[in-house]
Write a structure and sequence with these properties.
Blueprint: H1 53-60, E1 78-83, E2 90-91, E3 94-95, E4 106-112, E5 129-136, H2 139-152, E6 158-170, E7 173-190, E8 193-202, E9 210-216, H3 219-227
Antiparallel strand pairs: 1-4, 2-3, 4-5, 5-9, 6-7, 7-8, 8-9
Length: 239
C-alpha cells in the first residue's frame, strides 16, 4: 500500500490499512509463512524449551522458506525446522555458521504438532518447542559452542573422553583400522533443562567430524537419542 503524504498542513489524510492472509486461514497448529522482521540480533543462547515456534522464527527473522534439508528425525507428534542461516546460528554474539566438504552447520527446532483426532502422544503441545539441536561440523565453531557451554552453565553433571581406534564393516565383518577415534560427551543441567553434548573425531576422516548439542526437558527426547546410539544417556538426570 502506498503511503499517503500530507499535501497541506490543514489537510489530513487518513489511510485505511487492509490485511491479507494470502490463502487459507491459519489453523492453531500451523506455522506462519509470511515474512518476519527481525527486531534485533538473535541469540541462540536465550532459546528455551517451551517457547512458541512462531515467536522464535520472528525473533530470528526467518521463515519456513529458509529451511534446509536434513535427515534427522523427530518424535511422533512433533515436527521440525532446520536452518543454516547466520540469522539463527548466532551464539552470545558469535557466529556458528560454517561447513566442511560434505556438511553444513545447522540448528533444528523440534516442535509439537498434535493430531486433532488422536491427541498428544506424549508431552508435546502445538507449536511449542520440545527440543532444539545444534549440529556443528567445523572445529572453530565447535570451540565457540563448547567454550560458551562451559562458561554459561553450571559444572557438568557428567563428562568423559574416550579414545580408541575406528573400525569399518566389510562383508558383514567388523575390521579395526589405524585411525584414532576420539569422542567427548558432556551433560549439563540448568534448572530443568538438559544440555547433552557429543563430539566425535576420527583421524584421517575430517569430513566425518561432528559435534551435536541437544537441549530438552522431557525423557521422550532421551529415548530418541538412545535410538540413534548416542552414549552415556543413562547419565542424564531425568526421572
Amino acid at each position: 500500500m502506498k503511503n499517503l503524504k500530507y499535501l497541506l498542513i490543514s489537510v489530513i489524510c487518513i489511510g485505511i490499512t487492509s490485511c491479507s492472509r494470502q490463502g487459507k486461514k491459519e489453523t492453531a497448529n500451523s506455522i506462519e509463512e509470511h515474512n518476519h522482521v527481525q527486531t534485533g540480533p538473535f541469540n541462540l543462547a536465550t532459546l528455551a524449551v517451551g517457547q512458541n515456534i512462531n515467536d522464535i522464527l520472528k525473533s530470528a527473522g526467518v521463515t519456513i522458506k529458509d529451511t534446509v534439508h536434513t535427515d534427522d528425525i523427530t518424535l511422533i507428534g512433533n515436527d521440525r525446522l532446520a536452518f543454516s542461516s547466520t540469522k539463527i546460528l548466532h551464539m552470545d554474539g558469535m557466529d556458528l555458521d560454517g561447513k566442511n566438504n560434505t556438511n553444513i552447520n545447522n540448528v533444528l527446532l523440534h516442535y509439537g504438532s498434535v493430531d486433532k483426532e488422536i491427541g498428544p502422544l506424549g508431552n508435546e503441545k502445538d507449536n511449542e518447542l520440545g527440543m532444539y539441536q545444534v549440529d556443528i561440523y567445523t572445529g572453530k565453531e565447535q570451540k565457540i559452542l563448547f567454550d560458551y557451554l562451559n562458561k554459561a552453565l553450571p559444572k557438568p553433571v557428567f563428562d568423559t573422553v574416550r579414545e580408541n581406534f575406528d573400525s569399518e564393516v566389510k562383508d558383514n565383518e567388523v575390521i579395526p583400522t589405524q585411525n584414532k577415534f576420539r569422542q567427548e560427551v558432556a551433560i549439563w543441567k540448568d534448572k530443568d533443562q538438559i544440555y547433552y553434548y557429543c563430539e566425535t573425531k576420527i583421524e584421517n576422516k575430517p569430513d566425518e567430524y561432528r559435534c551435536n548439542l541437544f537441549v530438552f526437558k522431557d525423557k521422550e527426547w532421551k529415548s530418541l537419542l538412545d535410538g540413534f546410539g548416542y552414549p552415556d544417556l543413562d547419565k542424564i538426570p531425568l526421572n
